[in-house]
Amino acid sequence: MSLAAPESPSSRTKDGALYLDNAATSWPKPPGVARAMVRFLEETGANPGRSGHRLSIEAARLIFDAREAVAELFGAPDPLHVIFGLNITDGINLALHGILRPGDHVITSSMEHNAIMRPLNELRKKDVRFTNIACNSDGSLDPALIELAIQPNTRLIALNHASNVCGTILPLKEIGQIARNHDLLFLVDTAQTAGVLPVDMEEACIDLLAFTGHKSLYGPMGTGGLIIGQRIDPEELQPMRQGGTGSRSEQVVQPTFLPDRYESGTPNAVGLAGLLAALTWLKAEGIEAIRVREKALTARLLAGLGEIAGVKIYGIQDASKQTATVAFNIRGLEPSTVGLRLDEEFNILSRVGLHCAPTAHQTLGTFPQGCVRFGLGAFNQPEDVCEALNAVRLLARGLA
């Protein structure tokens, strides 16, 4: 089995730095992404759905093609149920603020990103309550605990598919089946797994799927949104904003049909042109093939870190049960110090701190100092792992 990533582009920056921060945003992007965005600006550039001329129609067609590509990727019931927003956080906010009402109860986990935790805490002001299921210290979750937490007023289960801190994958299908058995809605944050693991909405009983374009879908920032399943009545899911949609302009109230009900204002057409190119590349490469390479690199990184005295790894520490995100600390060194020295002395770019997920760090035992995170991606090579391990080894031995 070859661990080699696609031939190009390189995971080295212009100044030669090694990029290991793919869990924050993937870099580099496939070459076709930038080309598609430039082509849109130079050759199309019109406002989709706002005019009847050929360029506006072409822009609208491109966005629909992107909608179809997203729907195909996730097994969505209808491309028109793919709602493009500012990003995945925007999609999660639409789902939570749009569907929940005073008196509702939500079940979530202690491994969530603030994209879920902050809206839920804000909704407390509207008498929405939630139960935060304590995950194990490796970030894993027993689905039985979800079922035990169900209350008469439980409306929704809201979970990430994998931790952005340590990569631990949660049992999506089992939890989805629990939600369906109890007639609950299931919201899934796929920020860390879209493009990493196959996700089928029907198979996993997902009613609301939030996605982002800029991580492992290899698209640009500012793309993402929410996919609305067939069990969701749009009348029950209130839009977050109202305004111009290019449709039903004779009316001063928001259209009720999808996607216009939730997509007010000029869309990020240039970003969606890039996302479409990224999804085309991803389909050609194959999610499974990329996953095989990333698993092998992750296993090598975990094994190497495990051999370094003074290094503590967090999470499930099994490449088959996590994404290519690895969290660790070096005894005697603050994570911020390690990150700075990796950058300045070893030319390696990582992420340190709390990663916008304080409850996850409390679960892992790394709060409040946080940890160091290496995020591998599709373009990393085996030699990148060797270089990262050598740097950590020298720091741990105090030789740097």
Structural class: alpha/beta
Which outline best applies?
Answer: globular
**Annotation field: number of helices:** 11
Oligomer: single chain
Radius of gyration (CA) equals: 21 Å
Q: Strand portion, in percent?
A: 5-15%
- Average of the residue pLDDT scores: 95
Ranges where pLDDT stays below 50 over 5 or more residues in a row are none
The strands making up the biggest β-sheet line up spatially as 2-8-7-6-5-3-4
Helical percentage: 25-40%
Measure the end-to-end span: 34 Å
Q: What is the element string, with H for helices and E for strands? A: EHHEHEHEHEHEEEHHEEHEEHEH
Report the major sheet: 7 strands, mixed
Strand element count? 13
In short:
The protein is of the alpha/beta class. Helices cover 36% and strands 14% of the residues.
What does this structure look like?
- The structure is a single chain.
- The protein has 400 residues and is of the alpha/beta class.
- It has 11 helices and 13 strands.
- The strands form 3 sheets. Strands 2-8-7-6-5-3-4 form a 7-stranded mixed sheet, with helices on both faces.
- The mean pLDDT is 95.
Descriptive key words:
globular, 400 residues, alpha/beta, seven-stranded mixed beta sheet, four-stranded antiparallel beta sheet, 11 helices
Layout of strands and helices, then pairs:
Elements: E1 18-19, H1 31-44, H2 54-74, E2 82-84, H3 88-99, E3 105-109, H4 114-123, E4 129-133, H5 143-148, E5 154-160, H6 172-181, E6 185-189, E7 208-212, E8 224-228, H7 269-285, H8 287-306, E9 311-314, E10 325-330, H9 335-346, E11 348-349, E12 351-353, H10 358-364, E13 371-375, H11 382-396
Parallel strand pairs: 1-11, 3-4, 3-5, 5-6, 6-7
Antiparallel strand pairs: 2-8, 7-8, 9-10, 10-13, 12-13
Helix pairs in contact: 1-7, 2-7, 3-4, 8-11
